[in-house]
Amino acid sequence: MDIGGLETVVANSAYVSARGSVDGSAAATMRDKKMRARLKLPHIRDCEHVKTTVDAVFDSMCVKQPIGKRLFQQYLESEAAHMNAGQLWKDIEDYVTSQEKDRAQKAQKMVNKYYESASKNFCSFLEEKAVARVKEDFKNVPGDLFKESEQQLLKHLEKKAKDGFKSSMYFLRYVQFKWLEGQPVDEEWFMDFRVLGKGGFGEVFACQAKATGKMYANKKLEKKRLKKRRGYDGAIVEKRILAKVHSRFIVTLSYAFQTKTDLCLVMTIMNGGDLRFHMYNVDETNPGFDETRARFYTAQIICGLEHLHQHRIIYRDLKPENVLLDDAGHVRLSDLGLAVELPPGKDKTTGYAGTPGFMAPELLQKKEYDYSVDYFTLGVTLYEMVAAKGPFRVRGEKVENEEVTRRILNDPVSYVPKFSSDCKDICEGLLTKEPTKRLGFRNNDCTELKSQPFFKEINWGRLEAGMLPPPFVPDPKMVYAKDIGDVGAFSTIKGVVIDNKDMEFYDDFSSGNVPIPWQEEMIETGVFGELNIWGEGGKLPNDLDP
Ligand code: ADP
Ligand code: MG
Ligand code: MG
Question: Do 267 and 277 share a structural domain?
């Protein structure tokens, strides 16, 4: 074995062992004790400024932010007047994520407990109509059985429990966590493992948050390279969009910070490699996927696209290479550097962006376009998953971009017998050249697309909850990345001077912890539980002393 090969073996084994240890309780053993000790709650006296500025919008504080929600639920449990509502809320969540076979029994119990006026736990804040509907429908156990009840429950809690929460010690605890969340973060908090891939402005490394043991991917953007190649706008757009979306079908940004030389985006680590790799490099004698597998990935991609489009974001760069697998074999969209956000009131945009062979006709013709360009790229991606070649080029063909463009604009797509008729139909629907006739995002969702015959076997509720077992599970001992020597080095950048304006931009970029993922990390790794302890008589420990 040569030195390069040896380097990869050593780096892989460190990476695989760090990765493997981070399931559940073992994460604690991987922590750096010194860094973990720096995660501690401040004295409440030091939080006065946070108290008045903290995000206290009900939906954000009590529902969307995982730590805020936990503390709010603990408050509900502690108050006789809200205990039932708190329990109903937890039971609804448990019902939604439980296996279908267990749902009937759970639903029956919940109806008896909360929906019968004779029960001591009866929830009188539920409107009669909602109660009647649940009682009628619960034997069919639909996934959204309690949807209306949950909305009424949250409205009730906002009106009746939010103020009480805000004057309780649970709110003070929330303030303490928000203070901790707001502390600056830098490279000291992370340990890099091997390089996973190469981007346009720098490398992406596997890394570990030292204080908690959680693994991430760290995408580094070299400051000088960014400046020389005018990458500032793209970098800030990518950061802003990643921080804004929270979907299990899109990589999540957890931290943004800077080092002397780089801007760093720390995000969900996707250990399973990209779809392109799995299509062509795993079994070279049989490239592409069978239809079941292609359907599963396509369904998850649709959920990611739907989320982006509901947040007014056009992705523009969907292709197998940008769809990454996690340990379990679920996929997420990554690389949002070409995405664009439509400002309020504007429904179309312009601009040439994407990858040759994938871009929609209207974009290639320099017309105005909207979300529908992403469904054309979805059509190209699905076609390629099945056919193991793009719809607009012959396999192995060297062809000019102009010719590919001409084909996209003019040529019909042909389908080999490998395509089932449902699959061919949906590809044709997605690859429709006229954007208004293309399958896609309508009335703010993808319902029409999801109900195509091609997807008739997909239970969308379970898929969206991440509960459908993936058709392929990556090997936990395998590293789905190129050998280190093959990732490719960068040339050094010369003649770039960093001035004050650049530094202002870097500071703006380095916004630190992203609240929701940071809170998830604290909960997942057990740190939240370790910090959230109460003193005697339910006081905030070590800090409510006079
Ligand atoms: P660029 O926008 O510069 O093309 P990418 O976001 O595509 O950069 O990242 C470059 C490469 O790094 C990807 O092709 C992939 O191999 C790897 N990579 C990127 N993000 C992740 C991630 N979240 N998990 C694992 N590997 C990743
Ligand atoms: Mg890329
Ligand atoms: Mg990019």
Answer: no
